[in-house]
Write a structure and sequence with these properties.
alpha/beta, 7 helices, 20% helix, binds adenosine monophosphate, binds magnesium ion
Length: 401
């Protein structure tokens, strides 16, 4: 067995950051920029009003209350056709251009306009610039808005759109194929025959990829048959940035994934000192990273968390310090037992945040086939080799959600 960190290192060394592409902002959420983005224009691009109200000359309202003559209206999107002169005002709507002559806005709540006359009574004096959003107040033309390597959040995409920048140089969204293997697997809701089980891993892994900001590609479910496994992996390596298989990497006589991958790629076969998810295959097939994940459903999920996710984050351009999930400290609310076996255990646990700390209890049966506990868990508790933890002890956590 090899330590977890060594196995993670081997995987991460084999994966490279993906080459830069041009991405439309409609497709860019969660991707990392690969260029410095400079503002081609200011935001806002003109002085405008932050309030519905009246544009005035501040010097005219010093002695308020005072009555001014309304010379016109400027709505948002309109080019002003009026000039505000001495003792005059223009009605303005939020976002409208400040008409020439005016240097302040009085909000509508501080005014009284009669419907049938062209007069407005201003109740209070306002300083010069009142409620005016200046051109370039958010972003100045030529300003660097984002550096290279920034995650494009919805807010970032809003900034780009506000600048009229609809495409950006970024690291691509990894396309990752998922293949299930096993003679016992059934895909669909037909009644199970003796010995059959339903393929769950593919659905779980496709969803995990989606959650990780990747583009999942369904490579289907194939029996323990060398040529069918080889064909599916070849298709995956041709059209994807990475391929995940599950099943067939253990010590069984029908573990053909092992045989096929050995013929197709430059593979490392690892027995990692962890439970679940001890067996792992990793290698490159035509330069594409291929992960042979274990077949047990909980193992394949934990293997994804510990090996695939960090690799994908590296490929997406994240910096090394954010490849791995951060370890959080919690406290056991109950005993979390295990037996010494030379491995680090990743227990499926339920974490509650109570009075400023994470309280940790078991999420259910800890067998690597018991997916219901995995579904119920919102964290993995790291149990070092030994007899486990008593109640009220400190515990390291990988918070999943
Ligand atoms: P294997 O690694 O092929 O020996 O599989 C280990 C265990 O995981 C066996 O009990 C398999 O039936 C189960 N298994 C393998 N693939 C899947 C899958 N796609 N969905 C659910 N269980 C699976
Ligand atoms: Mg199998």
């Amino acid at each position: 067995m090899i330590p977890l960190a060594q196995a993670q290192d081997r995987v991460l060394t084999g994966c490279s950051v993906l080459p830069v592409v041009t991405v439309s902002i409609a497709e860019a959420r969660g991707l990392l920029t690969a260029e410095t983005v400079t503002a081609p224009e200011p935001v806002p691009s003109f002085d405008n009003t932050a309030m519905d109200g009246f544009a005035v000359r501040s010097q005219d309202v010093v002695g308020a209350p005072i009555t001014l003559t309304v010379v016109g209206t400027v709505s948002a999107g309109a080019t002003p056709s009026v000039v505000v002169g001495a003792n005059q005002a223009a009605r303005v709507m939020t976002g409208a251009v400040i008409p020439p002559g005016a240097d302040a806005v009085v909000m509508v709540e501080l005014t009284q306009a009669s419907g049938d006359s062209d007069e407005v009574k201003v109740a209070q004096a306002v300083p010069k610039g009142n409620h005016i959003r200046r051109a370039g107040e958010d972003i100045v033309a030529g300003q660097v808005v984002f550096g290279s390597g920034e995650v494009l959040t919805p807010g970032h995409l809003g900034v780009l759109a506000s600048l009229g920048v609809y495409e950006v140089q970024a690291r691509p969204r990894p396309r990752v194929g998922v293949l299930s293997t096993g003679d016992e697997l059934v895909d669909g809701c037909q009644p199970l025959k003796a010995g059959q089980i339903r393929d769950s891993n593919r659905h779980t892994l496709l969803a995990l990829l989606d959650e990780a900001g990747c583009e999942p590609v369904d490579l289907g479910c194939v029996p323990d048959d060398e040529s069918q496994i080889a064909d599916a992996i070849r298709i995956g390596a041709e059209c994807c940035h990475g391929v995940l298989t599950s099943g067939g990497v253990s010590m069984g006589d029908y573990d053909y994934v092992k045989k096929v991958l050995n013929e197709m790629g430059d593979m490392s076969w690892m027995q990692v000192a962890i439970k679940p998810a001890k067996p792992l295959a990793f290698g490159l097939v035509d330069g594409v990273p291929v992960f042979g994940l274990p077949g047990n459903p909980v193992s394949s999920m934990v293997s994804f968390e510990l090996f695939v996710l960090p690799a994908l984050r590296k490929m997406m351009g994240h910096p090394p310090e954010s490849w791995h999930r951060q370890v959080t400290l919690g406290r056991t609310a109950e005993k979390l037992s295990r037996h010494p076996d030379g491995k680090t255990h990743f227990a499926r646990v339920k974490v509650r945040y109570v009075d400023g700390e994470y309280l940790v209890s078991s999420a259910g049966g800890q067998g690597s086939h018991q997916m219901s506990a995995m579904a119920n868990a919102n964290a993995l508790a790291v149990l070092p080799d030994g007899e486990g933890l008593e109640a009220d002890e400190a515990v390291s956590l990988l918070i999943l959600r």
